Structures are given as C-alpha cells and as structure tokens.
Amino acid sequence: VPIAELGLKVQPIDLTIPQPPKAPAKVDPASAQRGKEMLDQMRTALGGAAKLESVKDVQYHAEVSILAGGPGMKAKQTNSFVKPATLRQDIELSFGKQSVFFGGESGWVATPQGTQNLPGPVVKQIQGELFRMLFSLALSDRDPGRTISAADGNTLEISDKLGDTVQLQLDGSGLPAKIMYAGEGMGGSSAVEETLSDWRDVNGMKLPFATTIVQSGKKFAEVKIQDYKINSGLTTEQLDRKSTRLNS
Q: What was the pLDDT predicted at 244?
C-alpha cells in the first residue's frame, strides 16, 4: 500500500501523542467465519497464498500529487520493505529530500536539516503502515494476534493486539477496492479512505498502480506507481544506510 502520507507527517515531525491501543472487538462466530471466507477470496484474487508468502522484499517508485493544504505539490517516492518489519521511504519534494527508515523497533529520519531518531508517535504511524500492507493483510489468518471478521456483506475487517484496525471493501472479483482506517496526525484522529485502482499483474500477483487518499472526507493525495520490484534482494542493512539514495 502506498505510504504517501508518511513522509508528509514526518515533515515536520509529528509529535502527536497517540491514543492507547484498543483491544480488538469481540467477534461472533458467524462474522468470524464470513470474514475468513472473504479473506480467502481476497487472497486468491491477489495471487494466492503461495505467491504472497514468497514475498521477502518489495520496492516501488511512485509519483504523488498532494492536494491538501493549499495549491498542492508534487513528490517522488521510493518505498522499500523487507520482511518482517523493515521499511524505508525516500521522498523528493520541492523544498528538499528526506529519507525515513524503520527497522522493526526504531529508526531515523534524515532531512536537509540533519538526522534524528524517530519519535514514538511516528513509530506508531509506521507500524500502522506496515500492518496495512496488502501482503501482510492477505495472510492475517496466519497471525494469531489478528482478529478477522465481516463488517458487512462485502467489507472485511482486520485488527491486531496493538490497536490497529482496517476495513477492506472488496469488489466483485475479491480485490480490495477501498481500504479504510483511522489515521493519527497533528490535528488528531481522522478517517482515512484509500481507493485502489489500475490493478496489473506483477510476478503472478495483482497489485494496484493507482491510489486516491481521502482524509476526513477531503481528497488528500493521488498516487501513481511506476513499477514494483519483488524479491530484488533488499536487506535491512542496505536500507539503514543514511547516505544511500533510493529514489533515483
């Protein structure tokens, strides 16, 4: 899933105090069973369990049109992920470049002004992004810490013990057309809705090449993905190098 909003929340550093984790809501057996059926349908549409489980690392380049907060601006991104929980984002904005790295427990952000450790609230935001990655969500029934249920006839809900919850609205083929969740920012909690489109085949899987992000009912950004690289051999050590630029 595009993490377009991540870099923007870190520039400037978001020091919002996150809400304490919420325990997953109790789910009745019928809803849980329907949720597992919907998860299996989504997993099949994305390419199947074997393909998804084979993913070790992912990198993609994207062009982002940021529509919130004035006339808008353009950004270029490279987003990189290594299992189980390493993530890096390199973003190029009109006012400079920045890199954000998270290695599973902690990380750093590098800007033209210098480098600093990621504050706890930003770590929480990144953990939410990792939780919402399609490769992870589609295998949620393999994780005993996650709860799966049906929110309605075509909406799958997944939550974890850290208080993260996401709803995925499936289309007729089982692909997630929309991803909905509560995002934390400097203005407090806001409803976020990501609409995924332009699905294409990549290494035997279906992946979205376009995303529209809406926050609190207002369009926030549009993301156009240029390419995906799957299992290219990325390592945590490589992504942790502050001098390495990955958005070229």
A: 63
Alpha carbon distance 141, 138 (integer Å): 8
Residue spans of the chain under pLDDT 50: 1-23, 186, 247-248
Residue keyed to tokens 């049906």: 150
Instruction: List the one residue out of 235, 236, 209 whose CA is nearest residue 223.
Output: 209
Joined tokens for residue 149: 């249920």
DSSP H or E run through 195: strand 188-202
Type of residue numbered 27? V
Kindly report whether the global pTM for this prediction surpasses the value 0.90. no
Token representation of residue 186? 């400097």
Terminal C-alpha separation, the chain: 20
Structure tokens at 209: 């090449």
- pLDDT for residue 69: 66
Give the separation between CA 154 and CA 151, rounded to whole angstroms.
Answer: 8
Query: Cα 173 vs. chain centroid, distance in angstroms?
Result: 22
- C-alpha to C-alpha distance for 59 and 79, rounded to whole angstroms: 6
Distance CA 64, CA 87 (A): 18
Kindly report the length of the chain. 248
At 169, phi and psi to the nearest 5?
Answer: -90, 115
Cα distances (angstroms) measured from residue 229 to each of 125, 138, 143, 225: 24, 19, 25, 11
